[in-house]
Structure formats: C-alpha cells, structure tokens
Design a protein that fits this description.
Strand order of the largest sheet: 1-2-3
Number of domains: 1
Shape: globular
Largest sheet: 3 strands, antiparallel
Radius of gyration: 12 Å
Oligomer: single chain
C-alpha cells in the first residue's frame, strides 16, 4: 500500500488489518530505522524521537495497539513523510 494512503487510513482511525510490511514501510518513510531484532521483535529508532518503536508481526499483520502507538508518536513529535 502507498505510504501516504496508509497514513491517511490510520489517521482516520483504522488500526486493524494493517500489513506488517506496509507499516514498516510507513515508519521508514517517517525517518525511523531498524536498530536491532531480538527474536520476533523489531526495534526502530528515529534520530529526533527519544522513544523506540517495537513491532511484531502476527500472521503478516501489525498489531493494532502498535499502530496506535505509532500514530501517537506521529502526533506528539509532528512527524511527516519524506519526499516520495
């Protein structure tokens, strides 16, 4: 899914049925990069955000609470997608 379309979708409150790979693509577009992978958990860090993002896929889908956490970080730190 297109990063901008996915961002619009989650901003409108749709936090379920989000593909894990689409969510990873979105947070990478926001400037996060993966720093480590302990087991099934993937830890991402942004240079200007003190919080880490911890993602874990369940049958190829992102967990809805993790989508909400990312949305919270986007709002709190005024993150935006880079150029396509």
């Amino acid at each position: 899914m297109n990063r901008r379309r996915l961002l619009q979708r989650i901003q409108q409150g749709s936090h379920q049925n989000i593909s894990y790979s689409d969510l990873v693509s979105l947070i990478e577009g926001l400037g996060f990069h993966e720093v480590r992978t302990p087991g099934s958990h993937h830890i991402f860090k942004h240079p200007s955000v003190p919080d880490f993002v911890n993602l874990q896929a369940i049958h190829g889908q992102a967990k809805s609470f993790q989508v909400r956490q990312i949305m919270h970080l986007i709002r709190r730190y005024n993150l935006s997608l880079g150029e396509p």
